[in-house]
Design a protein that fits this description.
about 400 residues, alpha/beta, TIM Barrel, 2 domains, nine-stranded mixed beta sheet, 15 helices, 14 strands, about 35% helix
Amino acid sequence: MICRAEQRAVMLISPDAQMALIPSERYGLIEDMLSGGQADSGAFSVDLEKAGFLAWMRENADTVRTAMERSETVQPPENAYAAPVLLNLELTTRCPLNCPQCYCDLHRGKDLPLDRATEVLRQAAQLGTSNINLSGGETMVYPHLYELLAQCSSLGLCAAVALSGWGVDESSLQKLIGSGVTEIYISLNGSTEEVSRITRDGHHLAIRALELLKESGFKSTAVNWVAHRSNIHDFENVAALCSRLGVKRLVVMAFKPDSTHSLASAPADGQTLELAGKIKQLQKQFPELSIDTESCYSPLRALLGQKFFGNLNVGISKGCGAGRDGASLDVDGSFTPCRHLDYPESFDSLRDYWYASGTLQELRAVEAAPEAPCAGCKYGPYCLSCLAVNAKLHGAVVKANKYCDLWH
């Protein structure tokens, strides 16, 4: 369990990457519970207890009290947490698949140097950055994958891997599990080969990997599903497939510009609104399956967060997390805001990058002067769309998502 001080708040992150942010207004209640008092029946206390946080807090009361005390003096960057919650490591740009919208090549790519990767992992652990995402290219191609997973485990970091299914068999799966992997994400854009091949290669590999994961009894399997104009109609089938194969989480991901910097296949004509309705329905139909929306797909999160009393999609993690709650290390060993924002910078440490990067300061300031259509959108206060879109298409870091289908 990670327990760290934020500005007038304590952040708790469990080994399965659940997070709770306890504001200072709740410290009195927390102190009562740490001192042996019973948790009340309010939603806040119930959520802490259900997630397993409350039991841990009572066993580690001194740690929690120290974090509460430190939180009064923490000075994070503006519009950001005091340290990244998530760090992505781009392990390789090599991949044996031939997805229609990708640039990766098995033979012409390169790998992240092991010494640089291990150095940054140690820095992340010292900062209290708990969640590590290992990605590619094809992550299974990386020659030091199991070694990095073992190091994450030894440092107390939650390590997730994103895979296509290539190279996953019973032997490699047992090595992944034995190395301490926390979550395994399989990329799947369709329930059938016909739907999937429009955007991804290797559908049969993904399905086989999910079958093997179910047979293995691994409890933290997730599916990454990227929303495209061509697969919105198939989402119910994907959810049913995930339920049948014992998947724990189905993550709905935003469409990013492809290798030609095109958004031709992005959802349009009200498809995001349609998808929000489907998610609400499917969450009731498949209660054992957690259907989550990545922060990059902030317009969808804003729709799902809308309640009769307001919108729940607020705060630092309401949308694009680049430089706010996350950062990335590219295959050359340089820091970037995220794997989709190609603004590499050389810093000796993750902490120096987090606090001194001019690029991150620019990203954190975009909400101060939103441009059309975001400036006039009713969801504007509850949305921060993927900043990589305009950066790749127009070379500008601005809050102005002209490709969002909520405002058309």
